[in-house]
């Protein structure tokens, strides 16, 4: 009996007890307890719901089940039972629940027509009822090790693993949920050719962009391992790290993951390893062993969230089982409590499975060997409901007030800077670490409590000193201070970055921004503006009217000697200004005394330009023989540009656009204006050619083939021969020639003309049909045959009869004329049918012809 229970607990978990004024572990029983139903083999809990799997078929006609419970009115109430499709499919071998989704695996499910084993059922909550919304079958027929043996879900991401068989060929599958459907996004397998990876996917955990897969190596073929995966910003999962453990350790039997922390458990009392992800690597921070040093399998199951770590040993104390609860203190997990089943019995198996909600402090413990409803080994689950403060902070002192949140509302908040309703004001709390408490009353003797440590950090701030007026006339030094030490000072005038010593002589005149840099969560720097007045320097030279019409030289004078002048119009390193050298415009002259504390002054002088304007307006010409006289004011300047003389006579060298420039003056006072002249002659028009006219039919129209300039007129001209003058026949854009001869097109645009090349139009004369009435076939090659001439013949049928109507000749081919061969002299009659290209309709001609010999 004990041996059977021991084997039974290799696959199950259990839970339980503690003294408290609030309900501690609330027992969950099956609606109809049944012996060896494996009720509570797997469990899951959320803020409001719990689910308990029962995947052992009691009889051949029994299918697996999963039971859903809801926390309401301070108690857990049974709501619904989900039932598998068929017997022996292990429906309920793993379960998951959150506020809207339920997952139930059937690790022995067989899809018709496929060797793949295992499936996961997905359910969606519709009001108070959970309805099946998807079925996720084993995607690979070659993996028959129980798809759905392990599963974990985080947000829309689901990872499903397989059971163990001592092989390396299993995979874990990652799905992405959209609405109620799940799409496969990644298939993860261990690298081949190593002595690790056996039983890959026996345990899985996922949270956010991190995923951990256990490969416990149940039969000690190699070494146990835990595979750490990370999802990139592009959504691709890749292996980030592998942790390898000693042969026979069975590490990876259980996996837990939350945020940047992970727990890898073993079921052989060889410790639970706790990792933390830092700078992209998982670092081993702590290894925990059975605190009671009792036999069993400490680390059989593990579960964790931000505040709670659960580690079970269901084989402790003759298989009664115990679950250890740890909390974080001083950045390490410390034992807080042990849970035992109430009135424990041998083979209760408390801790066969443990699960904790990722957001609240709710957790659930499995005891599939417990007696329930009088049925032995019917199983029980124990769930603890406790409100939890959601993580907050750290804050900066300048942050606005924020309403703290807990997984259950209606409680009272207390602590520095927090109101009874939970509004936390960092400025009221002050700098430092503050412990915030939340208390939720659940009756006269029950108050749930949770605490949260919130840190309010300071930003680096420069201490504002009462500084004396700073001037280059006197060197002043002082040390700057800040609210947070350890930073560095920078900026013009800082003589020592560590002490913050500022010297006005080193800074020089002007406004200087000094920066204090110290990397903190609430900022990295603060700035202070310091003004150092320069030594007084004044320019004494008075402003006078200046013009480019007259070169003026003036001496510049300042109040202090030893400085240097700069600006347009300054001749070299002298203190002399020349208007011709500066040119027209406003010129800023600077007198600067050198040195860090040197001073300067400026003087603005205006040199008026000589106004130059071209009087000729921009024009466009179509003739290249145009001569144009340009005009500008004032006189005495020079013209520059293609085709223009100094005196302003413009003769265009050819078509194009010419910018002609008129200049007057020299040096920087030179002034100029310009005008654009455009020469655009009419291009020679191109006229299409027409084919020779046949049969007197029109052959087309003459038209312009080239692009037509705008605002042009047409004139078509004709002459019969090249010796005759041209005659105007049309002024339209196109022309239908009526007479043969030569044609040309004249285009006119203003005073410009352009002619096309002459094109010839030919017309073949129409032949007059003549049928001979006599022919003499005497061999002199003159009128030897009865020849019927046609212009562009198509068909011809000729028949010749004697006077008695007897046919003496017939032909259907044009050109095969009657030669009179073997015919006697006399009169004969003919019948001729024919058609031509000019007369496509067949015509018939009758008549007589005389043959003379």
Short description:
The model is unreliable at 1-20 (pLDDT under 50). The protein is 3% helix and 44% strand.
Tell me what you see in this structure.
Keywords: Signal. InterPro entries: Gal_Oxase/kelch_b-propeller, Integrin_alpha_N, T9SS_type_B. Residues 1-18 form the signal peptide. The chain has 853 residues and is mainly beta. The protein has seven domains: 53-62 and 80-345, 7 Propeller (Methylamine Dehydrogenase, Chain H); 395-457; 470-533; 546-608; 613-662 and 673-679, no CATH class; 682-695 and 705-765, Sandwich (Immunoglobulin-like); 774-851, Immunoglobulin-like, CATH 2.60.40. Helices cover 3% and strands 44% of the residues. The chain is built from five helices and 65 strands. Strands 56, 57, 58, 59 and 60 form a five-stranded antiparallel sheet that branches. The longest helix has 7 residues, at 2-8. The radius of gyration is 54 Å and the shape is flat. The protein starts with a helix and ends with a strand.
List the helices and strands and how they pair.
Elements: H1 2-8, E1 26-28, E2 39-45, E3 49-54, E4 65-72, E5 75-83, E6 91-97, E7 101-110, E8 117-126, E9 129-137, E10 150-154, E11 157-161, E12 172-178, E13 181-188, E14 200-207, E15 210-215, E16 225-231, E17 237-244, E18 251-258, E19 261-266, E20 272-278, E21 281-288, E22 302-304, E23 309-313, H2 316-319, E24 322-329, E25 332-339, E26 354-356, E27 363-367, E28 380-384, E29 395-396, E30 402-403, E31 412-414, E32 423-424, H3 426-429, E33 432-441, E34 447-457, E35 470-471, E36 477-479, E37 488-490, E38 494-496, E39 501-503, H4 504-507, E40 510-520, E41 523-533, E42 546-547, E43 553-555, E44 564-566, E45 576-578, H5 579-582, E46 585-592, E47 600-608, E48 613-614, E49 619-621, E50 628-629, E51 632-633, E52 638-640, E53 649-650, E54 656-664, E55 671-679, E56 713-719, E57 727-730, E58 741-749, E59 752-755, E60 759-761, E61 774-775, E62 793-801, E63 807-811, E64 826-836, E65 843-851
Parallel strand pairs: 29-34, 35-41, 42-47, 49-55, 61-65
Antiparallel strand pairs: 1-28, 2-3, 3-4, 4-5, 6-7, 7-8, 8-9, 10-11, 11-12, 12-13, 14-15, 15-16, 16-17, 18-19, 19-20, 20-21, 22-23, 23-24, 24-25, 26-27, 27-28, 30-32, 31-33, 33-34, 36-39, 37-40, 38-39, 40-41, 43-45, 44-46, 46-47, 48-51, 50-53, 52-54, 54-55, 56-57, 56-58, 58-59, 58-60, 62-63, ...
């Amino acid at each position: 009996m004990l041996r059977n229970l021991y084997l039974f607990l290799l696959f199950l978990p259990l839970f339980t007890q503690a003294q408290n004024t609030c309900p501690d572990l609330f027992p969950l029983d099956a609606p109809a307890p049944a012996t060896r139903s494996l009720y509570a083999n797997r469990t899951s809990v959320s803020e409001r719901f719990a689910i308990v799997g029962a995947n052992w078929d009691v009889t051949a006609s029994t299918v697996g089940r999963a039971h859903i419970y809801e926390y309401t009115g301070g108690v857990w109430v049974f709501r619904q039972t989900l039932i598998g499709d068929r017997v022996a499919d292990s429906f309920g071998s793993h379960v998951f629940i959150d506020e809207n989704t339920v997952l139930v695996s059937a690790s022995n499910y067989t899809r018709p027509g496929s060797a793949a084993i295992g499936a996961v059922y997905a359910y969606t909550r519709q009001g108070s009822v959970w309805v099946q919304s998807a079925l996720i079958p084993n995607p690979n027929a070659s993996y028959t090790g129980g798809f759905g043996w392990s599963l974990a879900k985080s947000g829309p991401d689901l990872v499903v693993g397989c059971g163990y068989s001592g092989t390396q060929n299993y995979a874990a599958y990652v799905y992405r949920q959209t609405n109620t459907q799940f799409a496969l996004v990644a298939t993860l397998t261990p690298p081949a050719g190593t002595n690790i990876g056996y039983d890959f996917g026996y345990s899985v955990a996922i949270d956010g962009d991190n995923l951990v897969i256990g490969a416990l190596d149940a039969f000690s073929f190699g070494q146990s391992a835990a595979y750490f995966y990370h999802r990139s910003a592009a959504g691709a999962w890749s292996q980030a790290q592998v942790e390898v453990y000693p042969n026979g350790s069975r590490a990876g039997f259980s996996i837990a993951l939350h945020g940047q922390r992970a727990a890898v458990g073993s079921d052989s009392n060889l410790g639970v390893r706790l990792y933390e992800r830092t700078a992209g690597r998982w670092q081993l921070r702590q290894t925990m062993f059975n605190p009671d040093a009792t036999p069993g399998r400490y680390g059989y199951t593990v579960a964790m969230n931000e505040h709670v770590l659960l580690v079970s040993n269901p084989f402790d104390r003759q298989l009664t089982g115990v679950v250890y609860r740890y909390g974080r203190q001083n950045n390490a997990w410390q034992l807080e409590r042990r849970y035992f089943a109430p009135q424990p019995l041998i083979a209760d198996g408390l801790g066969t499975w443990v699960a904790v909600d990722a957001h609240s402090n709710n957790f659930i413990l499995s005891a599939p060997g417990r007696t329930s409803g009088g049925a032995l080994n019917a199983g029980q689950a124990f769930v603890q409901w406790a409100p939890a403060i959601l993580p907050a902070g750290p804050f900066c002192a300048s942050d606005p007030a924020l309403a703290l949140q807990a997984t259950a509302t209606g409680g009272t908040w207390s602590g520095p800077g927090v109101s009874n309703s939970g509004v936390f004001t960092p400025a009221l709390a002050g700098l430092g670490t503050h412990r915030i408490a939340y208390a939720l009353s659940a009756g006269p003797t029950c108050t749930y409590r949770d605490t949260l440590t919130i840190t309010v950090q300071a930003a680096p701030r420069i201490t504002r000193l009462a500084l004396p007026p700073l001037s280059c006339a006197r060197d002043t030094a002082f040390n700057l201070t800040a609210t947070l030490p350890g930073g560095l000072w920078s900026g013009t005038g800082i003589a020592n970055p560590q002490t913050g010593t500022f010297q006005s002589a080193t800074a020089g005149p002007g406004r200087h921004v000094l920066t204090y840099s110290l990397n903190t969560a609430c900022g990295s720097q603060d700035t202070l503006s310091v003004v150092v007045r320069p030594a007084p320097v004044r320019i004494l030279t008075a402003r006078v009217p200046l013009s480019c019409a007259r070169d003026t030289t003036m001496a510049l004078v300042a109040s202090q000697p030893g400085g240097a002048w700069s600006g347009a119009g300054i001749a070299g390193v002298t203190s002399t200004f020349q208007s011709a050298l500066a040119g027209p415009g406003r010129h800023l002259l600077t007198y600067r005394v050198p040195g860090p504390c040197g001073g300067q002054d400026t003087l603005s002088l205006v040199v008026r330009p000589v106004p130059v304007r071209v009087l000729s307006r921009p024009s466009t010409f179509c003739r290249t023989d145009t001569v144009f006289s340009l005009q500008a004011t004032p006189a005495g300047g020079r013209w520059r540009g293609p085709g223009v003389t100094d005196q302003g006579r413009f003769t265009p060298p050819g078509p194009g656009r010419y910018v002609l420039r008129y200049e007057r003056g020299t040096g920087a006072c030179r002034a100029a204006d310009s005008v654009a002249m455009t020469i655009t002659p009419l291009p020679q028009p191109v006229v299409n050619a027409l084919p020779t006219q046949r049969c007197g039919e029109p052959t087309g129209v003459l038209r312009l083939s080239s692009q037509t300039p705008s605002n042009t007129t047409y004139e078509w001209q004709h002459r019969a021969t090249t010796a005759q003058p041209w005659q105007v026949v049309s002024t339209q854009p196109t022309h239908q020639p009526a007479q043969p001869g030569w044609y040309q097109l004249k285009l006119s645009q203003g005073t410009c003309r352009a002619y096309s090349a002459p094109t010839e139009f030919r017309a073949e004369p129409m032949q007059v049909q003549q049928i001979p009435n006599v022919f003499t076939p005497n061999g002199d090659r003159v009128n030897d045959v009865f020849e019927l001439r046609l212009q562009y013949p198509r068909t011809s049928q000729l028949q010749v009869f004697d006077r008695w109507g007897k046919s003496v000749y017939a032909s259907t081919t044009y050109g095969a004329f009657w030669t009179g061969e073997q015919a006697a002299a006399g009169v004969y009659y003919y019948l001729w049918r024919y058609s031509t290209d000019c007369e496509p309709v067949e015509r018939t001609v009758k008549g007589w012809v005389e043959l003379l010999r």
